[in-house]
Amino acid sequence: MKNKKLDNQVMATFTRQLGLVLDSDLPISSGLEIIQSKTKSDRLRTIIISVQGELKNGYSLSESLLKYSDDFTPFVVHMIELGEKSGSLTNVLNQIADTLEKEIEIKSKVKAALSYPIILSLMMLSVIVLLVVKVLPSFSDILSSLGGEMPMFTDWMLNSSKFIGNNIVVILGAILAIVIVYFLYKSTKKGSYAIDKMKFYMPIQKDIVSALVGTKFARNLSVLLKSGFSFSIAMEMLKPIIDNQYMSSLIDEAVIKLKDGEPLSDVVEKFNIFPGVMIRLLSVAQQTGHMDKMLDKVAVEMEKEADLKLENVATVIEPLLIIILSVLIGIILVSVILPIINILNSIG
């Protein structure tokens, strides 16, 4: 069975703890021993034991972590390597922890903003299915026994409910098949690229994704530039961090343009996915020569933009879902009440 890779929270805790240990003037081997004894992650414990063996054989920390590139991204490994060479490993580890913790914070905000609409949507779907599959058919015999002519709308609703009830297994199977096909397509290189590109152009979602990717792009690029990496190398190291195939293809094109001497602000503008405020700030930074500091400001601005977009979406979606649910339930109830009223009127 394949081991589950480390998540950002475990990596952030590991790098933060290792930084604190090294700041206390303990050797790396002792620090790793302390972390290994305290961690709750079996995967991290396995990695630390392996790294301790590598260190005893004369390998550096970054060389030892290269074996676990699926767990520690190239960004983390290269940053640690730079820290070892420059003698500032403690500061670098704290920078890595800060970056990972910021990403965790952003993900938490996204989950918090979208969790209620998702739960409400599932509840809405459940109520509608229950009414159509269980409640409506129970009225069919009652309405038939009362006699009278069924309104066309009610007749259509009852026939629809019977169809859904009789074919519920087929319908659920079709939905499951669509989901499986989607994930199989997503697992291919072409599918992953197409889906990742779509995220930047779908209504409502595109502004949120652009702001979130812009935040990650600016914050991590700032850290890499502060550490002394060139623009082109730093951009290459961003690809696994961004984790978006479409963005990776744009970065590949950007690296070529940067090597040809094109300014970063112009290169990023040609991505045609980031907000104008980000491009303007990068352009100012290009002129003043304080790109790393300005990228930090860009990250803050993009994070505010993302928060605002998420808040706006949640504010609009929640009442909209409630209205849709109310209308749909009202239509179903009316389809039941109308024939009863008609029959009662005919009797009267």
Average predicted confidence as pLDDT:
82
Report strand %.
Answer: under 5%
- The domain tally reads 2
Written as H for each helix and E for each strand, in order along the chain, the element string is HHHHHHHHHHHHHHH
Number of helices: 15
Shape: elongated
What distance separates the N and C termini? 73 Å
> Tell me about the biggest sheet?
none
How many beta-strand elements?
0
The structure class reads mainly alpha
Q: Helical amount among residues, as a percent range?
A: over 70%
**Rg over alpha carbons:** 28 Å
Low-confidence stretches: none
What does this structure look like?
This protein is mainly α. It has 2 domains: 8-100, Receptor-associated Protein (Up-down Bundle); 105-348, no CATH class. Helix content is 83%, strand content 0%. The chain contains 15 helices and no strands. The mean pLDDT is 82.
Q: What's a quick, concise take on this entry?
A:
By secondary structure, the protein is mainly α. 83% of the residues lie in helices and 0% in strands.
What's the structural blueprint in terms of helices and strands?
Layout: H1 8-23, H2 28-38, H3 42-56, H4 61-65, H5 74-86, H6 89-146, H7 152-166, H8 168-187, H9 189-199, H10 205-226, H11 231-242, H12 245-259, H13 264-269, H14 276-288, H15 291-347
Features of the shown structure:
Receptor-associated Protein, single chain, 0% strand, 348 residues, elongated, mainly alpha
